[in-house]
Amino acid sequence: MTTASAAPASHRRILFASLVGTSVEFYDFYIYATAAALVFPTLFFPSQDPALQQLLSYASFSVAFFARPLGGLVFGHFGDRMGRKSTLVASLMLMGLSTVLIAFLPGYAVLGWVAPALLCLLRFGQGLGLGGEWGGASLLAVENAPPGWANRYGAFPPMGAPVGFIFANGFFLILGALLTDEQFREWGWRLPFLASALLVALGLWVRVTLTETPAFVEAQHAAPPPKVPLGELLRAHWLPTIAGTVGTVACFALFYISTVFVIGYGTKTLGYGRETFLAIELAAILFMAAGIVAAVVLADRTSAARVLVLGCIATLPVGMAMAALVTANALLGVFAWLALALFVMGFVYGPLGGWLPSLFPARVRYTGVSVTFNLGGIIGGGLTPFIAETLVKQGGLWLVGAYLAGAGALSLAGLALTRRR
């Protein structure tokens, strides 16, 4: 047992490791999202129709969401059998390598159809790595949390989302200010992907010094690890698996509509400047961080499930207000909607770091958290920019808002299942 003086330093290192890893992972993920909205349509998907280019670019973005459940299964399997530490190191390396290689990828003009195929392959690698990252980072934090602090410790991996987003979009914003549009399209967009190598090195340096969590060590001593954690999960814990999957849908829909889709819609349809829109996104993401902090403090005082219910209910009016606020020549209204949507997202996202691990026993917890979080990502986020782009072409922005409200209602149904449990 650690001494009182040593424990705080140990916990600071653990929390920093869970934060820095997910920050790097989300940075890698979001630079792709930003590039998919601003650069990739013309670089990798040539077409006479700009709308088709945008749809194809968003389709490549969705590839990672279908890789994430596979990554969750693979890394969850080894995380429940061999431990959290080595699995987290491997997931970070895979994500980082895939991201850096995108920086060296020629466009369609050089490689033809091979270019978008390789882009999708590397995007698959990004998703595979992130699929094992979030669940392991959550367990690293929650399984080391003092009594009564599970949700606040569990907030550190979700906090990696705004931190990674700020670094990613901030980098693109700086490049936009320093480079011409032609320079940015030719080579400037590659610099954030190259910079990922430095961030990955930082994450690995922090994580290799960690030890296994007390909950994993205790589970290993109590009984042999399951030979196939997924089999035990589906056999003995199928209801919380369904509940956890559906319960995460709202956070993914909120985030990818309010960032990826809205960036493309705001710059290409509403006519806002790229740098201007990135700047208001950066300001609005601070409201997400504030929402996460408020949500997890409230969750430790009440319960994570109650806070998630509040967030899902609030998602409904956020969706309904979208068409009225996200309009041309009304930048303040756009910012107001983004700030509101991302603040509410803090309430449907922040408590997941403590809530999902609470649904499963330690022996299958890595698999359970990874599977539910990543399957929820497919439903709520994987095709969301693509679907939103299609809906707005068919009937206007109010349909996108209705889609978002429906995601909130779906997550409410998932939370209701945990009450039955």
TrEMBL record:
Q: What is this protein called?
A: MFS transporter
Single GO MF descriptor: transmembrane transporter activity
* TM spans (from-to): 58-76, 88-115, 159-179, 191-208, 238-265, 277-298, 304-325, 332-352, 396-417
Q: Name the PROSITE patterns for this protein.
A: MFS
Look up the signal peptide feature and give its range.
none
Give the record's membrane topology: Multi-pass membrane protein
What is its subcellular localisation? Cell membrane
Cite the InterPro entries for this sequence. MFS_dom, MFS_sugar_transport-like, MFS_trans_sf
Question: By its UniProt entry, which SUPFAM superfamilies does this protein fall under?
Answer: MFS general substrate transporter (SSF103473)
Q: Provide the Major facilitator superfamily (MFS) profile domain boundaries.
A: 14-421
Tell me the Gene3D superfamilies matching this sequence.
MFS general substrate transporter like domains (1.20.1250.20)
Q: Which UniProt keywords apply?
A: Cell membrane, Membrane, Transmembrane, Transmembrane helix, Transport
Q: What is the lineage of its organism?
A: Bacteria, Pseudomonadati, Pseudomonadota, Alphaproteobacteria, Sphingomonadales
Q: What is its main location?
A: membrane
